[in-house]
Amino acid sequence: MERVLPWGPPAAADPVDRLAPVRAEPRGWVAVPGVFSAEDCDRIVALRDRLAAEAAGLVNGVSTSAVRRSHIVWLDHDAPDTAWIAARLTRAVADVNREVFGFALTGFDEEIQLTEYRSEVAGFYDWHSDIGGRGIPQSRKLSLTVQLSDPADYDGGALELNTRGEPEAAPSDRGTAIAFPSYALHRVAPVTRGIRRSLVVWTHGPRFV
Ligand SMILES: O=C(O)CCC(=O)C(=O)O
Ligand SMILES: [Fe+2]
User: Quick check: CB of 196 below 6 Å from ligand 1?
Assistant: First the structure.
């Protein structure tokens, strides 16, 4: 089912005001603070733990390859206990796309990814672009990742982007979303203490190329 984004004027003046600084300084990626509160992040993490426990034994949620080591749980955009998360992400994507990127987007064709990078396995995700070589990931246009963890709870684990010729670390404040074109190179550095959690959503549309 294709999901249509709520294009048009923002619901309130607030999201636009929040994006004023990033509009003023064009760059390849933008940070949107306060998409989720600390309490929201706690709720999402609790949900993650419940879903991960339910899925244990059914789906092995460990993604391990040469470029990546993380634990993943998928969230439905429409399920009763996750729709509020999807609604908040949709609003953030619509605002940031309208104000900053201006991409042709049609909707969300993949579930929301809840990711966990654990220091016990030096969880990481090496440099990559989110646009896949086949299937639905081919039409990813805008990537958005939310910092769910308190930065005091882990070391390492920085989200870095290279959109201007050199790596830049994104802000790690809890509840901040980082939006970037899905073709942009980014990585998550190895976590050396604690756990870093993130929420990742991709928005799709006609392919760039
Ligand atoms: O954990 C993050 O913040 C980013 C994850 C990521 O790049 C991905 O899942 O494609
Ligand atoms: Fe990525």
Answer: no
pTM comes to 0.87
Identify the residue whose C-alpha is closest to ligand 1 atom 7: 187
pLDDT, tens digit, 9 for 90 and up, residues 2-54:
444 544 445 555 555 666 666 555 568 999 999 999 999 999 999 988 887 66
Listed in sequence order, the residues at least 6 apart from 44 whose beta carbon sits closer than 8 Å to its beta carbon are 36, 85, 114, 148, 199
**CA 135 to ligand 2 center in whole angstroms:** 16
Residue ranges and CATH numbers for the domains of the chain are 30-204 (2.60.120.620)
ipTM associated with this complex: 0.99
Q: Please tell me the total number of residues recorded for the chain in this structure.
A: 209
Place of tokens 């882990």: 154
179 lines ligand 1 (CB under 6 A): no
Cα of 196 vs centre of ligand 1, distance in Å, is: 11
106 alpha carbon, distance to own chain's centre:
18
Does ligand 1 come within 6 angstroms of the Cβ of 188? Answer: yes
CB burial class (10 A; 0-12, 13-18, 19+) of residue 161? buried
**For 189, phi and psi rounded to 5 degrees?**
-65, 155
Ligand 1 neighbour 198 (Cβ under 6 A): yes
Identify the CA nearest to 19 among candidates 78, 93, 105. 93
